[in-house]
Every structure is written in C-alpha cells, then in structure tokens.
Amino acid sequence: MNSSYLLRRIGYGLVLMLCVVILNFLLIRLAPGDPAMVIAGEMGGATEEMLESIREEYGLNKPVLTQLAIYVGNVARGDLGQSFFFDQPVASLIAQRVGPTILLVIVAQVLSIVIGVVLGVLAARKPNGLMSGFVSVFATIGYAVPVFWTGIMLIILFASILPIFPVEGMQSVRLRDAGPLAKALDIAHHLVLPAFTLAIIYLAQYARLSRASMLEVLGSDYIRTARAKGASQRSVLFKHALRNAALPILTVAGLQFGNLISGALLVETVFNWPGMGRLAFDSILRRDYPTIMGVLFFASAMVVVANLLTDLSYRLADPRLRGK
Amino acid sequence: MALLEIENLNVTFNTRHGKVTALDSVSMHVNAGETLGVVGESGCGKSITALSVMGLIPMPPGRIAGGEIRLNGENLVTASDARMRQLRGAEVAMIFQEPMTSLNPVFTVGDQIAEAIMLHQNVSADRAFKDAVALLDRVGIPSPDSRARNYPHQLSGGMRQRVMIAMAVSCRPKVLIADEPTTALDVTVQAQIFDLLNEIQRDFGAAIIMITHDMGAISEMADRVAVMYAGRVIEEARADDVLDTPQHPYARGLISCIPALGKDDTELREIPGVVPPLHMLGAGCAFADRCDYAQERCRREKPALVNHGHHPAACHAVEEGRI
Ligand SMILES: Nc1ncnc2c1ncn2[C@@H]1O[C@H](COP(=O)(O)OP(=O)(O)OP(=O)(O)O)[C@@H](O)[C@H]1O
Ligand SMILES: [Mg+2]
What we know:
Chain B: Keywords: ATP-binding, Nucleotide-binding. Chain B: It comes from Lutimaribacter degradans. The complex is a heterodimer of chains A (324) and B (323). Chain A has 324 residues and is mainly α. Chain A has helices spanning 3-30, 35-40, 48-58, 64-76, 90-125, 130-144, 147-161, 180-218, 221-229, 233-271, 276-285, 289-317, and strands at residues 82-83, 88-89. Chain A has two domains: 3-76, no CATH class; 99-321, MetI-like fold (Orthogonal Bundle). Chain A is 77% helix and 1% strand. A two-stranded antiparallel sheet of chain A has the order 1-2. In chain A, helix 10 (233-271) runs antiparallel to helix 12 (289-317). The longest helix of chain A has 39 residues, at 180-218. Chain B is an alpha/beta fold and 323 residues long. Chain B has a domain at 30-54 and 81-91 and 173-281: P-loop containing nucleotide triphosphate hydrolases (Rossmann fold), CATH 3.40.50.300. Chain B contains twelve helices and twelve strands. In chain B, the strands form three sheets. Chain B has a six-stranded mixed β-sheet, sandwiched between helices. In chain B, a hairpin with a 4-residue loop joins strand 11 (306-307) and strand 12. Chain A binds chain B through residues 220-222, 224-232, 240, 243-244, 317-320, and chain B through 54, 56, 85-90, 93-94, 96, 98, 101-107, 115-116, 119-120, 151, 153, 164, 167. Adenosine-5'-triphosphate binds at residues 13, 15, 22, 40, 42-48, 58, 61, 97, 213, 278 of chain B.
C-alpha cells in the first residue's frame, strides 16, 4: 500500500468532515427565528444576557462568512459550543458518552459479521438445504422488523420470563466498588441484549450476502483447483472460498457503519444505554441545537473513520488492489 | 492391467431439458509413462471424463450413473470422499483449461504450491515453500525465489500455467491430466508448455492424459489417441494409426482439418454442421446428420466401438466396408 494513497484518503475524509461542519452551520441559519434563540433552545428561559453571550460567542452580528470561519475555527479547536440544557460544553458531554456507544457499535458489528458470515457459509454449503432456507427467511424477517420492536420483545422476554440478562443500563450500582474484572464482566452482561438487538438486523443481511457471495466463489475455477489438490471441505470453504467471498462483505460492512450508528441511537434509548444515542435523543427532544450539532459531527467523524479503515482493510485483503 | 482404466463410464446431468447423458459408456485406459491423447470438438465430454477421474464432477446436477474408473485396480467411483482426497493431488493430478482463473487470487503462488505439498507429505511449511520454489525453477520460471512471493495477477498466462503444472507435479502423481493446457495461451507459449510436459513426463514417469482439440498437439505428444464425439469414444488407437489412417468419418474430418505446415494453403477447413446438444441425441449415431456416409441404419442404431480390421472405430459404414 503506498502512502500517497493513504494521504489522499485522509484528505477526502477531512474534506467530508468540513462539509459536515458547514452543513451544521447552515442548519442553525436555516432554522426559523433568531439564530441566538435557536441555539439557546426553546427552553423559554433564555435571558437577554444569555442571548447576548451567544451572539458574542458565535459572532452572530458579523457577516455570514466570518461567522462560518469562526465556527469552523471553534470546531477545529475542539470547541463544539455550550449545551444550555445540560449546562456543559458539548465536547465534554460527548466525551463522557462516546465510549459506551463505540463499545456497543463495535460489539454489535463484530457479532453480526461473525454470526452472519458463519450462517451464510453453512447455507452456501448446500444451496437448497434446510440451513439455506432458514437463512433466507431469517434475513427477510431480520430486515423487516424494526429494531425497537426487537428490543422491546427481548426486554419482555428477559425481564419477566427469563431474567438472566439485565435489560437496562450499562453497570450495576452494587458493583461500584468491585474490581476491574468484575466490572468488565458486569458491562459485558449488560451489553448482551442491546448488542444482539442491534446486531440482528445486520446479521441477517450479512448472512444473506455471504451466502450469495460464497455461492458465486464456490463455482469458480480456483475452488476446483483447491479440491483437485486434495484440500478438505473445511479448508475449501473457510480458507480458499471465504477469503475471496469476504471482499464484498467487507465493503458492505463499511457502508453499514453509518446505519449501525443511527441504529445504536434507537437501541440505546430502548435499553437506557448511557451513550451518544441517549444524548441525541434528549437533545432533539429539548431542541438543544449545539448538542445535536455536536452529536452529528461526532457520528459523522466515526463514519468517516470507519470508511477509511474499511478501505484500507479491503486493500490488505485483496492483493490485486495493493500498490495501486 | 493398465495404470488407469475407465470402463463403460456413464455420467448424466440434470438440466432444464431433463436428464442428459454427458458420457455414454466411455472406456479408455492409460499405461504408466504413456501419453493418451483425448480429442474431440467442444462439448463432447473431454473435461467431464477428466473430472470423473478426479472425483470432481459437480453433484448435483451431475451423477456417475454407471461404470468403473480403476487406478491400480482400485475403483474410484465407489471410493470414499476421504480416500479421494488422499488420491487427488497425490496420485492423480490435473492441469486445467483456464490458467487465468485457476489460481486463487488472494494467496501467493508459492503458498498455493506449498499447500499441495503439505496436504500429502509430512513436511514443515518452510520445507514445503522451499520445495515450491524448486518446482517453480523446474518448470522454467525465472527468479523463482521472488516469483514464489507473487500473487497470480502479477504473472502472465503462460507463467500461471507453469505454476499450475508445478502444483500438479509437486507430489509426483502417477497420472497427470492436462485439460487443454494451452488453449488460452499464445502459440509460442503453447510449444513451450508441450515441451515442458514432455520433460516432466521423462523426469517423473507420470502417465499423461492430454486433452485437446488440437490434432497437431496429438501428433507431438500422444502415444495413443481416443477420439470422442457427443459423449462417446468413437475411435481409439495408437496416435500414428489415427493420424495416418483415421477410420471414423468424424476422425477423418478432424485430420483433414489440420492445416498442412509450410504450405500456402493455410485456409482453415472444418467439418460442416455442429455437435447436436445432449438433450437432442436420438437412438442412432450422433454424427449421422453431419456424415456423408450415413444410411438408415446409422439413424436407428448406435454403432459399437469395435475393431473392423484396422483399429477400433464406432461406425456402421466402416463395419460394412462402405468407406
Ligand atoms: N454442470 C453441468 N450441467 C449440465 N451439463 C453439463 C455440465 N457440465 C457439463 N455439461 C455438459 O456435458 C457435456 C460435456 O462437457 P465437457 O465440459 O466435458 O466438454 P469438453 O469436451 O471438455 O468441451 P471443451 O472442449 O469446450 O472444453 C457438454 O455438452 C455440457 O453441456
Ligand atoms: Mg473442456
């Protein structure tokens, strides 16, 4: 992989982030009414000094382009503004909540890819078999059912019928003074239901995609070559075929990352998971614009980083793209 | 007993036209150290014969409906999957028609050859890779050390076919099947690959089944020839005999189509008509519709592969002395 490609990709990412920032900026200008009022939120309690300090901070009495420059400069310095509802800088609000969201999103992503791919590979072994039918039906259902419904169903199931997983929050209060291992296990325990709820939609899609991708790869000449060497069925499936079938799965995984983050927003709300989703939900309800903008900015940054990583891993996985 | 004997092999496929017979009582054999040429037009069942020996017929839709394939007397048709995996690559190996797509794009060629070695020999990964490099050298790939670390897309078609050959001979198989190994390559490379196969045979003593539609390749490579048409062997004899005195009208046609070298008359001739699709095969001889000698009996009754004086040919006209 050459470094000029890497630099170019990072450049694209930065340009994209700049676009998001400009969009954020426009969001406030396009909202009806006095921007200062909008930023202060419709809490009704915005005093004249408050509005004045907002006008000062955002330079609302200066020309629009100057305002944009100030705003971009603020964001670049890590200053995402002040939440009037939470009465805290937005950056620190996000910093407190970004960890749980990243944890949830990554665990859900890994779960859905691993389980989905295994199901897809098993289904591809016998394209007309039982497993194949199961994957198709499951994929359709998983895709059609809204994530909050799955979440609520799981809550009902596990809260009342089979109470083995906690259905709310991320940590148990009684373990506040426990050791790090006990705490980690406790978080993992809390993570099970939200992660599965989030994973299920994508899992179904990965299963269907990897089934199709595997079927195509299994028909190719180099698979016949592998068999002609005397390779075992397992080696043919998981070594020779999957390495090739994984390429389109990787692409989709990268593209899904954005959806996964917006899915996390809903799941966090359902399971009261203390992440950015809750923050977004609360700030939207309160029309806390600086926070909404901050969350938007941060979610976009996560998507851009994820896409960059996907692109790089794609190049690592496919030797034909290396050095190009 | 020949090294490899195929006897009355029947292979069928389920297609949307119903069940079709791709191989109809195919028999042929090859002795140790010998080269058997298998010729015939596209679709006549050459690759299916080869894949049957390898145990690689896609099932479904394919099925071996009858017959035996014996390697050193052991029937491969009834052998277990595990046994076939032991034999594939070790005792019988195959070089495929499509060098461009027959190597796995995500592994280096050295690793792919080393894998074949490790599957059948109890050696370390290091040792296997060193052997792979030596094999690449043996098949005439320059700077084999660095080439072994290349991916298939970094190699030309001719080089990829050399890699396939290196892989196929890596465990010194007793039978090497080369399925049109040069069709996809240009003419100068073709000659090099044939030379290489001849050398390899001399060094390793393998029996070669050489599948081709190129009669020129047959005259250079083969000791004996089986001519196939629409899923049947219609003539079988020593290569010289088939080339000098072809019996079956189809074999005669094939041989008259070889452009004479060094002459101006290089205009390509061909046998008029096409091979009938498998689901349209009737009760009689499949060649009857294209044959100048066809009579009513030819359309009614399939001729058997029998020696009518010179060497075995499946033709009523030959039997009746009409040609
Ligand atoms: N998977 C399949 N399903 C149905 N029919 C098949 C299948 N594979 C092969 N056949 C049929 O079997 C017949 C023999 O095919 P085969 O590949 O052996 O031909 P061939 O002699 O190798 O031709 P070519 O010179 O083009 O390689 C063809 O008519 C083909 O239609
Ligand atoms: Mg073929």
